Amino acid sequence: MRAEIRPFAERDRARLRALFGRAGQGTPTASLWGHEESQAAVFLTPYMDLEPESLFLALLDGEPVGFLAGCLDSARFPSEGRRMGRAIGAHRLFLRRRPLAFLLRAARDGLGAVIRREPVPGRFVDPRWPAHLHINVAPQAHGTGVAAALMNHWLDRLVESGTPGCHLQTLVENTRAVRFFTQMGFVAYGPTPAVPGIRHDGHRLHQLTMVWTAPAGRPPRQRPAPRVEPAPATAGPQGGARHPARRVADPGESAEPAATPAGNEVGSQDPTAGQVGLPPPGVTSPVS
Ligand SMILES: CC(C)(COP(=O)(O)OP(=O)(O)OC[C@H]1O[C@@H](n2cnc3c(N)ncnc32)[C@H](O)[C@@H]1OP(=O)(O)O)[C@@H](O)C(=O)NCCC(=O)NCCS
Question: Which fold has domain 3-263?
Answer without folding.
Answer: Aminopeptidase (3.40.630)
